[in-house]
Amino acid sequence: MTYVFDFADGGMHMKDLLGGKGANLAEMTxxxxxxxxxxxxxxxxxxxxxxxxxxxxxxxxxVGEHLLRVEQTMGRRLGDPADPLLLSVRSGGKFSMPGMMxxxxxxxxxxITVTGLAATSGDDRFAWDCYRRLISMYGATVEGVPRDLxxxxxxxxxxxxxxxxxxxxxxxxxxxxxEEYKQIFQDHTGEPFPxxxxxxxxxxxxxxxxxxxxxxxxxxxxxxHIPDDLGTAVNIMAMVYGNRGPRSGTGVAFTxxxxxxxxxxxxxxxxxxxxxxVVSGSRDTLPLQELAHLDPPSFDQLTAAMRVLEQRYRDLCxxxxxxxxGRLWMxxxxxxxxxxAAAFTIAGQLVDEGVIDLDEALRRVDGAxxxxxxxxxxxxxxxxxxxxxxxxxxxxxSCGRAVFDSRRATEASEPVILIRRETNPDxxxxxxxxxxxxxxxxxxxxxxxxxxxxxGRTCVCxxxxxxxxxxxxxxxxxxxxxxxxxxxxxxxxxxxxxGELPVRPSPVVQYFEGERDAGSxxxxxxxxxxxxxxxxxxxxxxxxNADTPEDAARARRFGAAGIGLCRTEHMxxxxxxxxxxxxxxxxxxxxxxxxxxxxxxxxxxxxxDAERVLAGVPGIPRIPIGTMIEVPRAALTAGDIAGxxxxxxxxxxxxxxxxxxxxxxxxxxxxxxxxxRLGVIDASPFETIDRRGVGxxxxxxxxxxxxxxxxxxxxxCGEHGGDPDSVRFFHEAGLDYVSCSPFRxxxxxxxxxxxxxxxxx
Length: 761
Known about the structure:
alpha/beta, Dna Ligase, domain 1
């Protein structure tokens, strides 16, 4: 089996084998873009390693053969004391998992090669800066040395030198820092920092493969519904340097705004820095447009590459690049993560540009994104005064209690805003638990911003707030915010407010309510267009659960075709309740109550009663008589029940409770959070249909019910009818309709259309 591929031997359609990053590096190489030479260890190698507990036989030999080709291309050799080749080692699964797995840069530096790098570059400071980066990355990633030990040492040297940023440290300070880092490494591991470049490379490869199964990676995959058995590729390429002085730098670029979808060139640039400095958010970046003034030729070349990539991928592209002494290098590209608003807007734009058709546009959005767009926004009519303004990194309006620790965010019983200097992958559980994220550092391409956009969380970055090291609080100008204080963050404007702000309806809800027309802005226009196309292609009917005139009217405005569930018991609340209770408790034949159905004989009895009542009402039209399927036995005997039943309506809430054997009220606040955290379940079965269990009951009932009665009409009336993943299942299972709450009707319409599309080729 071949475990290693040169970049030149792959392509964008090989993501299963090469991972997203490797496939895209290969595609950029094929397109003739300036990619450093390198190769990819496949996901098959990762799966073999995870199964065996060791590197598969022959892998290191293949790595050596491909490394030799990189050395020949670069004219440098790994470990050469005079002119060393250095390597970067990066992860890259099939699906983008920003910041969740590992990266090690500058592999190949040691006490000897660092002097060779200094001599060939003519820059002592650059060489020692690279060496200290390698020791800290390798120590933390490969050997598990706590990152904050290195961070504290770096901060102490900045204070001693009287400087604010890392690039201001002189060569002597960096040499001293390297020695301190090596001592930290040895104190923690009991071994000196490895001087053999081959040992460093093997350790880095192992660390990346292991990172597939770190806790943060597993948590992210559960949140994004990414399978655990895919594995990660390992991408190894020649190092290029953005930290070689003022004519060098690194950045992240987007071919369209990932927050709004607006056309143009967006991103961040950081002079005299390596890529980790940008994505970590540890240093304040410049807007990408500043590169046009700092280095016009590189900016023009980058702009041309962005056009090529967007045309090739037919979508928003996210690009990482480095400029080394005026030479542009492309380090990565991928289809960029975006907000819900950007997803709809970009899909509409690409249809207008003739790049994709409406079917493809509908595939690129989903019901979960539409649901995000329907949440309210802050009402700023009172002109509230923000306490601080930062970078609008991920749109939305979120309010919660200030929390400064990821663990405490996961334990909070109230909505929280997670506040950090900058986030790192270890903060993921807290980011998932929080309503919004607020950081003092970083920009639109920082870890906090990228992850928040992907998860649909509100995020404001780069606020320059002063976070207290001693107590959980921050200061913004003349305001101090302590843990537990209520704050509101606006990810659309970047503004942060003290207290809880009032909210107003989203423009998308106003459109569905008829208060805005379809042409009121690009977002509403895109939503209108794609929901209308979904209506045109979907097979599933979409009804509403409504038992009041107000609910029924809203459901109709939101596009429901009718009422799928009307709970008559809701008519007898309030002042009528005493009358109903008296009737139920009355003695005699009237006290007999029939139970919703588990056996066909029950249905025969109930149907006979219903037919007698209907026969006694003159002039009434023929009314079909069917049954709810809420008991597992009813699903398993659906062939019998379909005889006297003209329709089935699955009550999936009760069916789920009975199939799992517990009460929803008992488990959702106690057992399920632990199950989700431990990976026992990927989602609550009350939110998304349990395909293997409850879903199988539904499929059996549909198949056997239709065998007995081909014209049997079948639907679902539980809230699963408005869940995007569940709607897709109900389409596949052959149901005729779904019914959900009025507010979720547009989501069900959109997802029913997506489910009906042919497979994307």
